[in-house]
Amino acid sequence: MSYGDAMNARTRSEERRAEIVRAALEVIAERGYRGASLAAVAERVGLTQQGLLHHFPTKDALLVAVLEERDKWDAVPNGSWRVDLLASLVEYNAMRPGIIQTFSALLGESVTEGHPARQYFTDRYTRVRASMTVALRAEYGDRLPNGLSPERTAPLLVAVMDGLQYQWLLDPESVDMPGAFRDFLRLLGETAE
């Protein structure tokens, strides 16, 4: 096999993997992780289950790929958030309900003992709280206008973001997720609209 043929095969394989991850996102959003089957994902992309296993040897491996792909979409340069960008993230999330639904379904399921995404979400929340602490400290220093430290405020900030997502998914007509989040930022002392 020539170098060009090898590169083409690799590109096709990467494209197929991306297609499988997108299909898995859809199936998980519809059925939850436990209800999603490799057969359903394979069918959605026109593969046999064995063909899918060539790209992802286990359901857990596919789940990790789905979660990693989702995190890439929210990545910021240098991994550091700014408080003024968080409202933009919430607005962006409001434009992609399927992704938010998948994330929320997996998060909810992951709290059970032995769930394959439990460690992923535990580690992710540790990173997110640390990142929010850095963002809050950069914006406000060691104390926010409300008197709380960035370390005490970061879990609240993350909880509001995730809690608003659940409420919005359940009743999008009644919950203005971006507006409610901007209101929360005002409570912290942020005045930007």
Automatic annotation (TrEMBL):
<keyword id="KW-0805">Transcription regulation</keyword>
<feature type="DNA-binding region" description="H-T-H motif">
    <location>
        <begin position="37"/>
        <end position="56"/>
    </location>
</feature>
<dbReference type="InterPro" id="IPR009057">
    <property type="entry name" value="Homeodomain-like_sf"/>
</dbReference>
<keyword id="KW-0804">Transcription</keyword>
<dbReference type="InterPro" id="IPR039538">
    <property type="entry name" value="BetI_C"/>
</dbReference>
<keyword id="KW-0678">Repressor</keyword>
<dbReference type="Pfam" id="PF13977">
    <property type="entry name" value="TetR_C_6"/>
</dbReference>
<dbReference type="InterPro" id="IPR036271">
    <property type="entry name" value="Tet_transcr_reg_TetR-rel_C_sf"/>
</dbReference>
<feature type="domain" description="HTH tetR-type">
    <location>
        <begin position="14"/>
        <end position="74"/>
    </location>
</feature>
<dbReference type="InterPro" id="IPR001647">
    <property type="entry name" value="HTH_TetR"/>
</dbReference>
<dbReference type="InterPro" id="IPR050109">
    <property type="entry name" value="HTH-type_TetR-like_transc_reg"/>
</dbReference>
<dbReference type="Pfam" id="PF00440">
    <property type="entry name" value="TetR_N"/>
</dbReference>
<keyword id="KW-0238">DNA-binding</keyword>
<protein>
    <submittedName>
        <fullName>TetR/AcrR family transcriptional regulator</fullName>
    </submittedName>
</protein>
